[in-house]
Fold:
Amino acid sequence: MAYKIKFGTDGWRGHIAEDYTFANVRRAAQGFAEYLLAQGKKDEWVIVGHDKRFRSEDFARAAAEVLAGNGLRVWLTNGPTPTPVISYAVVAQKAVGAINITASHNPPSDNGFKVRDEHGGAIDPQGLKDIEARIPESESAVRRADFAAAQAEGRIRFFDAAPAYIEHIQTLIDLQPIKDAGLTVMVDAMWGNGAGWFPRLLAGGQTRVLEIHNQRNPIFPEMKRPEPIRPNVDAGLRATVENGADILLINDGDADRVGFGDENGEFIDQLRAYGLLAYYLLEIRGERGPIVKTLSTTTMLNKLGRLYDVPVYETGVGFKYVAPKMLEVDALIGGEESGGYAFRGNVPERDGILAGLYMLDFMVKTGKKPTQLLEELFARVGGAHYYKRIDTPFSGDKQEKIDRILSANPQTIGGLRVTELITIDGYQFRLEDGGWLLIRFSGTEPILRVYCETTHADKVDAILEDGLKIAGLR
Structure:
């Protein structure tokens, strides 16, 4: 029985040499090629890029061979390239889509296969199902070209995606005031594709950019995985204090996500970060437009929506839901709990580089430190909001867990009255203070996630403990 390739929240991911093999990468590329050909895209260009994981460049070459073997043309990045830069290259090169070899924030044992549409954004769930259905059961059904021959014929071409992206970024934000501000910016590149980007973009002024974890090291020392959450960010937080930095910017392994640390070396969680970025666009830049959020992110956005009279749309978890909704409503900003944020004027894709620049611009335009910006945000949304997440490896009967959750019918959680159960994606119990508890199976790993947000700092752990009981994990 052939290994079944399934596309989760953001593409297909697997364990290197176990299920993530060259044969299976070629099968996935064949499915994507046939998906494009069915749309009449023969002889059109496709972007192929990769991250710094083990043999990612070789998996990218294998995918390029398959696309070329199916009558498509390939722009192949000339080195590890951030996911948002690959996504923008789709637009800049007038391509019809992209394959990105990356497992993003997964552990070092993994690699992945992301696909993007002609807008550079995530392909919607129906499109992913279509690609899955076209993946052949055997590598023997894969059509592939010889790499050297395809390159000689001009069907595969190496290119540098950076210049077009940098030119584009400078239409969205004036970098000179940030360069001239004299900030000390600490950057944790998490051994990934974001290394070198902030120093390059902010060079030539009074602002200093200091980087750590900026070499290639696929085992990701000093962290469990290149994901911008604690405890993975602790080394960066310590370096922020040691160097007297004004802020810490943290990119995940492929730089589509971002995390932040304040001037005191305290982590700013992803929900607060999303609130800050939305507030910056609405208040400081004076922009208006819909906000798109997954149900696992902050209710501060709903409050900002009411304050600034802009609509807020909630989706399932993952940019395969966020990106199509952003395009549909011409959203100002879209984002999710994992630290991925997308912006109008850019491609409908998470961009950890642009998000970092916007946060720096927020500081420069207001003259405030991150702690002061949070105080200002909380003053607008009725006080501090507290968030926490627990990830638990999952095995056994998934349906049994689902049945248990649905039959629980709790009247209170963490001492707060339950007002509603939402089942858009997972099981979200809305609470009387406007907060929530969410129980959800990961779309990329065998993990059950339990998350909460509340305005009561003293109830966070009690809410999560009740969530674990409801899920049968206690």
Summary: The CA atoms of residues 69 and 144 lie 4 Å apart.
